[in-house]
Amino acid sequence: MPHVERGMAVGLFGGSFNPPHEGHLLVAEIALRRLGLDQLWWMVTPGNPLKSRSELASLADRLSMSEKLVQDPRIKITAFEKTLEGSYTANTLAVVKAKNPQARFVWIMGADSLSTFHNWQKWREIVSTFPIAVVDRPGSTLSFLSSKMARTFDYARVDEDDAGTLWKRKAPAWTFIHGPRSTLSSTALRAGSDDKTQ
């Protein structure tokens, strides 16, 4: 787990990164800038319970590709989840919170994950652990209106203009951040498709 100083604001950006690409990097850069973060942890997960393992590159390869892609020293590439029992996000966030009571965290996710977020194990617990920033992705701009999470926690939505205060807020609190979008996707890159919007 990366080192964090007292009072730091840290974004947690988890995913398979299979492979990592410029779209992921754009989400990370937008989050750093718009949320006023000191660090962002690029958390490469050992696996994803909602995705097939047969398509998954090795953890070492995904870490190596991430390190080659990311140049910003504020972005810390890590795979600490490998050392935890169970790779579910709710468990990871609970451990992060327990081990780093001196820091403030925000969970970062692409808008493309919002529509299926209610299928994640203990998704309500995730929303209640740390504030969440949802960053726009192509084809997902309206997900903040239609997703189950957005409807359930509509009362906790923070205006995008106040995104820079999100890390100071007590969960549940979330915001949707619009901005430049990349049409790249890991699925399309794995398939070698010309259509990068799948």
Automatic annotation (TrEMBL):
Q: Does the keyword Acetylation apply?
A: no
Q: Which InterPro entries match?
A: Cyt_trans-like (IPR004821), NadD/NMNAT (IPR005248), Rossmann-like_a/b/a_fold (IPR014729)
Extract the GO molecular function terms from the UniProt entry. Answer: ATP binding; nicotinate-nucleotide adenylyltransferase activity
Which top-level enzyme class is recorded in the Swiss-Prot or TrEMBL entry? transferase
What is the superkingdom listed in this entry's lineage?
A: Bacteria
Q: Which UniProt keywords apply?
A: ATP-binding, NAD, Nucleotide-binding, Nucleotidyltransferase, Pyridine nucleotide biosynthesis, Transferase
Q: Which GO terms describe its biological process?
A: NAD+ biosynthetic process
What's the EC number here?
Answer: 2.7.7.18
Q: In which pathway does it act?
A: Cofactor biosynthesis; NAD(+) biosynthesis; deamido-NAD(+) from nicotinate D-ribonucleotide: step 1/1
Q: Provide the reaction this enzyme catalyses.
A: nicotinate beta-D-ribonucleotide + ATP + H(+) = deamido-NAD(+) + diphosphate
For the Cytidyltransferase-like domain, which residue ranges apply? 12-191
Instruction: Supply the NCBIfam families for this chain.
Output: nicotinate (nicotinamide) nucleotide adenylyltransferase, PRK00071.2-2, PRK00071.2-4
Say which family it is in: Belongs to the NadD family.
General function of this protein: Catalyzes the reversible adenylation of nicotinate mononucleotide (NaMN) to nicotinic acid adenine dinucleotide (NaAD).
Its name, as the record gives it, is Probable nicotinate-nucleotide adenylyltransferase
Which gene holds the coding sequence for this protein? Answer: nadD
